[in-house]
Amino acid sequence: MVKWLVFSLLTLRTCAADCFEQWDRRPAVEWNRCFRLESGPWAARVSGSTGLERIPLMENLPGFDCLSPRIAELRLLSLNHQSVTHYWRSLDRASGIATSSFEQNGARVTQQVFLSRAEKLLVVHLHSDKPGTLSYQVALELPHGRKARIRDRRELDSRGVRAWVLPFESDVETTDQGLAVRGEGEMMILLATGSRHELDSRMPALGLKYDGRERFPDLAKVWAGLFRAQQSASAPGASSSSHSPDE
After folding, report:
1. Is 153 left (phi over 0), alpha (psi -120 to 50) or beta?
2. pTM for this structure?
């Protein structure tokens, strides 16, 4: 009886510490080690890679992700990748926010990814504590050999799938593979699906003006709003955990 009580207490303690939190000290290599995100009809996998991050957006079906139809794959290639130190990644299961963080070139880089429950977007946010150290190429891989075309300098678009690449201070360059951001301190990428009419209205609905002819919005406020909305949609009674394991 005593042994059973001890086992039960240990089980409850482990569950209380881990039910809404998952940690790792290295990026995922196998797909089943990636953090899984879910929201409504969507699912995604995040590896936390520091070189090439590939985030597949899939239909949220039961069973193995590798068998789920893929809608698109967002690819983030670091253009100044070097060896990293003090790496960690975590998944806050309550809010559905996957975070990876590491030190590189004297800067602490943090990436946060989630499927927005409020706005029906895949949101990727990158931040460096040393301005000018973020340089990434963003590409959109689509099924059946479809190609994404560049719209309005900051968009990758193809038949009901669209990605917006939004650096907070610098501008976006076009490349053979997609769009590139160089020498940035903070940037955000938004991925959405829907009809052309729905997609054309997505950015204005978020308060973003992106045609280059009007004053560009405060992206820090847009990001803060998306992040707060995601946290407020957390599972009831669950606390959000976005700190470093070294703290």
Report:
1. left
2. 0.85
* Distance separating alpha carbons of residues 76 and 83, to the nearest angstrom: 17
CA distance 162 to 183: 24
Kindly report the CATH number assigned to the domain that includes residue 171: 2.70.98.50
Q: Is residue 241 part of a domain?
A: no
- 12 occurs within a structural domain: no
pLDDT value of residue 209 = 61
Structural domains counted in the chain: 1
Q: For residue 59, is it within any domain?
A: yes
Using DSSP, state whether 195 is helix, strand or coil.
Answer: coil
CA–CA dist 24, 152 (Å, integer)? 38
What is the Cα–Cα distance from 82 to 79, expressed in whole angstroms?
9
Q: For residues 148 and 178, what is the distance between their CA atoms, to the nearest angstrom?
A: 8
Residue 247 inside a domain? The answer is no
Q: How far is CA 233 from its chain centroid? A: 17
The pLDDT tens digits for 37-73 are 999 899 999 999 999 999 999 999 887 777 788 999 9
